[in-house]
Request: fold
Amino acid sequence: MNTQSKHLGSLSVAVLLAVCGCGKSGAEKDLPVPKTTKQAATQLDQVFATATAEVSPEVKQNAAVASQALRSGEYETAIVSLGAIKESQNLTLDQGIAVYNSMAALRGKILADMEAGDPNAKRAFQMLKRAKRD
Reply:
């Protein structure tokens, strides 16, 4: 392998590490994957409680609404609020992960409740399908 190829390989590895975000800042932590919507709500509360000024009051409000909706089983409200947060441009990595985890927990809850015959879960599932198409 020539010197130019070695430099190109080293540069590729450096770029890959930078893109992957292999280094974490001190503020970031490994967030556990919540098993329930209540755990997801708690995670949302925790990461948005320490949100910086870069996160708008509207995003913080949507996080509070989503958290409450996850706790009380208000599927459609949770979907709308989490969707609004996802559209925000200034989320930290932990906030993005918490939103993703919340959507995953909500999706699981909706599917389980839908299989149990809950008509609200069926409507929420249709809402999730429409949101994915948009």
Q: What stands out?
A: Residues 29-133 form one domain.
